[in-house]
Amino acid sequence: MTQPATVLELLDFPPGCDGDNCCERARVKCTIHLVDDCDHPEAVSGDEVVLLCQPCLARVLGQAQKFLRHTRKWRRQHCRVCFSPMVILSDIVREVEPL
Ligand SMILES: [Zn+2]
Ligand SMILES: [Zn+2]
User: pLDDT tens across 14-40, in order?
Assistant: First the structure.
């Protein structure tokens, strides 16, 4: 006997985007470091995994870039909690995987 499919698979329900007020279909799985908040009890290894559509991914990358500009100005280029460097975009948006 084969493993029963999940309800979502049975319904062929596309994963929705996790972006605020967004009801697009998600296209990528994105792993984002919870900068300064990565000891959050629900965070998996300090990262948050979200499913995003392309426009929301672009928005998240833009926000991360803005954040990096700020930390450069403040001369604080690491996460306050885990002290990992926050210098380049992939320090914050650690993984983008197409769905
Ligand atoms: Zn979206
Ligand atoms: Zn951290």
Answer: 789 999 889 999 999 999 999 999 998
Residue 9's pLDDT is: 55
Distance 39 CA to ligand 2 centre (A): 7
SS (H, E, C) the chain: CCCCCCHHHHHCCCCECCCCCCCCECCEEEEEECCCCCCCCCCECCEEEEEECHHHHHHHHHHHHHHHHHHHHHCCCECCCCCCECCCHHHHEEEEEEC
- Hey, which residues does 53 pair with through a beta bridge? none
Residues 69, 61: Cα–Cα separation, whole Å:
12
18: number of Cβ within 10 Å: 17
For residue 86, the CA-to-ligand 2 centroid distance in Å is: 9
Other Cβ atoms within 10 Å of 53 Cβ, number = 21
